[in-house]
Amino acid sequence: MIRIGKGIAVATLALALAGCGKKDEAAKTDAPTGTASASTAAPVAAPAGQDWTTTIVATPEGGFRMGNPNAPVKLVEYASLTCPHCAAFANESADKVENYVRKGTVSWEFRTFVLNAIDISASLLARCQGPEPFFKLVEQTYAEQHNWALKYQNLTEADTKRIGALPEDQQFAEIAKLGGLDQFYGARGLPAAKAQACLTDKASRDTLIALRDRGTNQDGVTGTPTFIVNGKIAEDTYDWTALEPKLKAAGG
Fold first, then answer.
1. Quick one: pLDDT band at residue 20, thresholds 50, 70, 90?
2. pTM
3. What residue ranges define each of the domains in the chain, with the CATH number in brackets?
4. N or C: which end of the chain has fewer CB within 10 A?
């Protein structure tokens, strides 16, 4: 059994691509909710020579935020890198969210919600180079999820036991290697030595666990993806059809 900080454990590394949490069945609905506001905020110009989509910072909560820090609509997304519904949203809608961010009326904060040991490894690598490349790396990770995630389907119980017997600071580096995640992020500019440092850094792992705990205990996250608009969970919202009216209604 592999333990992920503070008592979170997984009995196997096999990745169940069918589910991300309690919201899986509800995610099948395509009925939009909410209505657009008639008083949508006017676009806000970014600083000279800049684009709000390139304004990306780490947040005190542990996420990464893209966009105007004073945007009237603050979108928070809790998502898992191994969640297929999260990948579907990213693949279909990331550019659409960025269009709102570019206007300066919406900011978009991504808070990683780890579900398993593979999530920990992927998230440590996605965050390793800091805020600037984070959103593009997440976008690329989701675009290729169907490829890299399948590599974990063939892992055996012996693989799990072998990794579980390693010291904790070595487990996530081995998980990344088995799925080719080290090479995936290496091809996207992450040096091998830096990747190893991030994968073995306890403080980085603790940040991910704390962010997951915050989502569960403070923000009411019960499944992924979860969207929060101006501090309120967007109920029954799992795709762009449902999310966009709520951004508009809030003034996006």
1. confident
2. 0.87
3. 52-249 (3.40.30.10)
4. N
